[in-house]
Amino acid sequence: MCEDCKPGNISRRGLIAGGLALSLATPLASQAFAQEAVAAAPVSPEEALQRLVDGNARYVANAAINTDHSLARASRAEGQQPFAAIVSCSDSRVAPELIFDQGPGELFVVRVAGNFISEEGLATLEYGVAVLGIKTIVVLGHTACGAVEATIKSIADRELPPGHLPSLVNAIRPAVYDVMGDAPDDLLDAATAQNAKLNAARALSAGPILSGAAAAGTLGAVAGMYEIATGKVTFL
Predict the structure, then answer these.
(1) Is 164 annotated in some ligand binding site?
(2) Where, in this chain's numbering, is Zn(2+) bound (predicted)?
């Protein structure tokens, strides 16, 4: 029997060979696992929304799976195919990819203070639907929204804020007026939720691109409220 083959006698050559095999096997195994973990693209608005629901549940449970953003980086350079659009507030505490536990290239995000849909935002969503094939639009309001709060204050004071801020106030004002008559216990939360609902409805009714996709059953839109303290999204 050769010296290297005797029990308990591991040669330097064997150690090198074994280490090389392990170093090659580890990234290959990781790559295979990553490929298996990639979910198939949703084919319906309902499937797309469920994927967001599931992702938010992982985020709330602190069990995110989209943590290695280097995976598929090269393939993302070739193009994008997001499955959902998120119209969210610019608030720094609201990060859609984290909230829904989705990786780069999976969400098409439109952000503006107060999460309303402007003409430019509408055009952006049309591009997402017509060119990128997104299946659902989520208009995401959130607790303690400063833009909605500023709108409520402007109405109460009967005074517009300075600079270009009136454009935000005027866009959000209809939602505040809608709920003021009901005298809700929390006017800020009620107005924020109504603002998300109004803009989700606008997305579905905007013709011809978005309304056409909705009529064909290939696009859905829903309003949601993000609770900053818990991380949970409640769909309205």
Answers:
(1) no
(2) 89, 91, 142, 145
